[in-house]
Write a structure and sequence with these properties.
The structure holds two protein chains of two kinds. By secondary structure, chain A is of the alpha+beta class. Chain A has eleven helices and 21 strands. Chain A is globular, with a radius of gyration of 23 Å. The termini of chain B are far apart. In chain B, 36% of the residues are buried. The chains are: A alpha+beta, B alpha+beta.
Chain lengths: 425, 166
Amino acid sequence: MNIAEAIRTEAAASRFQISRQAYTDPAVYQLEMDRIFSHCWLYVGHSTEIEKPGDFKTRTLADRSVIFLKDRNGSIRCFLNVCPHRGAQVCRLSEGNARSFSCIYHGWIFENTGKSLSIAEPETYPPNFGEGGRNDLVPVPRFEEYRGFWFVNFDRKAQSLRDYLGDACDYIDVIVDQAATEMHIVGKAQEYSARANWKLLAENSTDILHVEALHPTYLDLVATNSGGAMKRGKMLGKCVDLGNGHSVIERQATYGRPIAQWISLWGDDAKAEIDAIYDRLVKMYGEERAIRMARYSRNLLIFPNLVINDIMSITVRSFQPKAADYMEVNVWALAPKEEIGTPALERRLSNFLEFLGPGGFATPDDIEALESCQRAALSAREAPWNDLSKGFDPKSADKVGDTKDELPQRAFWRGWQARLLSTGA
Amino acid sequence: MRELKDWSRSDIEDWLYSEAALLDEWRLPEWRQLFTEDARYLVPNMAGDPYAPPESTLYLISDDGHHLTERVKRLGKKTAHAEYPHSTTHRTISNVRFLGIGDGELKVSCNFTINRTSSQSGVIDTYFGRQEYKFVQADEKLLAREKRSILSIGALRPHGKLSIIL
């Protein structure tokens, strides 16, 4: 398909539309892997997942297997999981703790710093064979961190992570600063998938317009939990195009938040605790920012495939396209360390599971909707356009909108199109 | 008066087969009656320790009695979109083992295979693993106080979701 024609706007009717072929065309998928996933910053993991020297996780980013680790000296590193010799994966475990990695194929061994420790029959090679680190593990081209979140970029010439995140940093700060100590990943990732194009999940993650239609069973549960106190309907807040394809919705939370909005289900003791947390935030950050941190929710999309949703709980979600019509999804729970061993963590995890994850009261219905969209997109020839016009005013810059506008989706698609049309690889 | 020690393996098998039938037939409110009011229904995350406390680690499902009741209510609604129209499931239970009696509970494990297909996707997803039950005696009946469904599949791929009760 022609990428330049993938987005269609009609000023007279305030329409903004997307070609459905963009979800189904294998050539588009290939182009995305080349021009988006090989040039954008991709989330690989959180520093608290590898706290001890030797801790490692293997992850797949844009089809590359990588090893995300803390080396024996305490440095966090990321290597391509491929033996420099004959190319087998040097690490075949999804996680663990290791001082070194040895390849099963010919026995080459590497320190967890990446440095070659030994190769097969070294005496048969010239003495200078390993000079310049040519027998070492290959580090990912770029590897940078923002507030505990580590990202990889396969483009050596990419702009810095900080510049890439741009205005999204403030929203990450508002989330991370909620912790009195530091944020950490609780337990392991939930690993699931969807038989749908990855862009459908990107659109879905910063879309609250769908909540009342798609998730009434979750809203019923929330009403039960809060004694009917939480109201549906219009919420204060906004959505913002953060540039580079990133976007956020920030709005008043309509459910209990461990930091810091109490609901009756949690009991009177919790109320005092949550009030104290709120007071701490006011002292540290002032009332205006404290209200944002405690009583507002955020759905944050970092282009192309990272979502940090600070809603009834905090979820970090990344998704890896595997084909035009299939993606793998990894989801983590993020929580302040001071909650370990307290009822606050229990509330946070309960809130998480009520909505989120493959067994929640809401996410399964999201997946059902995305898969439904994917099947229907096969009718693209006769019914070619998806509509993302809500809140679209062709005369405005389209940078800030109401919470239920489709502005985040438009920001995503503009970022998508700019990347695909750029040949400056 | 019947006690926990009076239940035979074939009694337990009957209980498990009945439970499976109620789930396969989408008779969920009746299924809920097989559990105590305060029952836990747990599906640990496959990546972690299946016995790690759900209060401090991320599960896939960690229902207390209230949430289990709400889950049953949800699945009875047409707006539980992932399961409406209801999927078709077949549960196979085998390898039933007594793990012992203690703390007023009879502990049992069994293997399960669940095939699920839906009119929406047209594909078949297979869930398999081990169930662990803690039963209590309630008058003449046996009620489950805890059901821990330990999936043996590495990830929900390509299943994508866990919208049925295991």
